[in-house]
Amino acid sequence: MVDPSRSAGPSHAGFPSASEYAQFAPTAQTAPVLRLPSSAAALHELIVTTKPVRAGDPLITPLEALAGSSLADKSSNRGGSFQNILTLNGINLATLTDAQLRQGTAGYVFVLGARLGSDKFEDTLPLALRLAAVADPEQLAVIPTRVAEFAWGILQAAEAAKEVPRALGPLQTLLDASSNGSYFNGVHAVFLEATLLTGNYDVGYQSIRRIYLSVHKDTPYLDVLTYHHHAGTVTATVGEFAQAAELFVFAAAMPTESVSAIQVACAKRAILCELLATGKNLHFPKYTSSAVNRMLDKSIPDYLKLAKAFDARDWKAVEEAAQAPVFRHDCNRGLVVQILGSIPKRRILRLRQTYSRLTLADLAAKVESAPALVAAAIERMVGSGEIQATISGTPPVVTFVDDDDYASAVNIAKLKRTHEIAAFLKSDLAQASRTLSLSPEYLKKQVQKIDGKDKGRDGKGGRRPEQFGMFTDDIGPAPTVRGVGSNLDDVGF
């Protein structure tokens, strides 16, 4: 019989009993409970008093939770209470000064974004436009996805109120304030849509000079698609068809399993813009999704027919293909009309390969157009930098110059733009190289690689990867570990 007063000893020296092992077992740790503001007044107090604003701080975390909860429980009473708190229901924000709006930028982006999505958006629009004009860039950088949602809310409310021109300036200011280096900015898609709605194509085109190399992980796929569609449309509107085709192709070739109608629209316009830019049939990249390719085979037969005829210089077939009603239905009739108008230009470019001098009358006869129209076409082509030619003498003689004028304004502008992109890429690559060369994971892999080579030569290994961690806090010169920028084998990105 076991004596209960006797303390139980271990059954074996190497195997402690359950009661002994329990003394050393880790205790269960509960996740901290997120406390949401219980009222609109409590949330407003949090917005006013919290500074500075950072991701995960006592303000952003509850706001994200409230925004997610009000959406998830939208049909329930609980969701309604969350919505009332998030919109600061019952609190008059119209009395806020610009300084107060700027100080509480992050919080008011959530609040006004929620209000713009309600039935009383017209009362919120003036305040939202004020916030867009005075927002704090540092706070906007913490919540890039919410800023884009806020911008969409402004545009939709402005459309409903028929005040899109009034919203254009604040949206441009918000775009400038929320730009974050080379990261894609969802506000840009909103701004471009506003320029299209108001006909301010030149303003939209100037904004496309921004260079994007990265995208935040939470950025909606639809925002990226929309940006490239709108950017391509704006670019085509100002006559930069080569750049427009590039933007449209990027959108059409984006990875996807379910094809978007935007991608199909981009593919159609890419084909037309390529004809205007080069006169050739467009071939989409090999990495284009198979789902997109299958959809395009069914959706664009009339576009392919037009492109193949134009590429083959079968002008009669081009004119017949251009009459398909699908072009008007897709709102692409304007591009097709320009394609038909570019036929004389294509004929001139082909004749330029054969003749160096030709009377204007003879050239017009070969082009099958009136001399005045041919002369005007040549002047436009010279102005755009496509050819170098002169028209002089009596009767007028067209002289084509083989040497390209690299000092022309058009070529200088292209060279300047290319230099800007190259400098930007060089800076971004240098930054990526520095970041990667300070990564403990990357350095450990490099040590493994070096140790493997050394071991293959002399059968001896070097420092173990787990021992290399001591160097990652403050990395100094290391002759055995080369930086990513100086070793072609170190391309890890």
Automatic annotation (TrEMBL):
Family per similarity comment: Belongs to the CSN3 family.
Keywords assigned by UniProt, alphabetized: Cytoplasm, Nucleus, Signalosome
Signal sequence segment: none
Basic and acidic residues bias: start-end ranges: 447-466
Domain of life the protein comes from: Eukaryota
Keyword Cytoplasm listed: yes
Protein known as: COP9 signalosome complex subunit 3
Domain PCI: 240-405
PANTHER family referenced in this protein's UniProt entry, alphabetically: 26S PROTEASOME NON-ATPASE REGULATORY SUBUNIT 3/COP9 SIGNALOSOME COMPLEX SUBUNIT 3, COP9 SIGNALOSOME COMPLEX SUBUNIT 3
Subcellular location: Cytoplasm; Nucleus
Name of a matching Pfam family: COP9_hel_rpt
Record region (Disordered): 447-493
InterPro entries: COP9_N, CSN3, PCI_dom, WH_DNA-bd_sf
